[in-house]
Amino acid sequence: MIWHWRRPGLLLRWNAVLCAVLVLLWSGPEDTRIGGAAALGVWTAVSIGTYWASRRGGVIVRGWRAAALWIVFGAAVGAGAALCTVLVMLFKDVRHAHPFPDFPPGVLAAMIARVPPGAAAGALFGLCAGLMRGALDPRSPDAGVPDGRGVI
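Structure (tokenized):
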């Protein structure tokens, strides 16, 4: 298993711009559905996590340390997804500033309560992604047979 990220490029910067524009467009109309906020929160958390990991790029980590990094990265993104969703909802409530918020405090508290399950799910997803990346990486010694076919 290998952990290797490149330096941040133009794609990550445009991703951040697009994410910010969509948050601003989404927060404009009166809408109390949680699905859009959750999608934007997950996108924001994945974008922040990818940018953070790519800022520390250029280092190759192998073995159990790579597995640990994938697990920690997944847990951070999973927990960050719920927190970013709360921040997106709070941004919309503050932007509208009327007496009855689109997302009341009970909804925000329920989203904060989803941080531990999100971290656990993210850790498992990170472990799965790390194992799949290690299995499909041609530089890895256990990537499959030499002719390019993977072993299942």
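The chain has one domain: 2-136. The beta strands are 2-3, 61-62.
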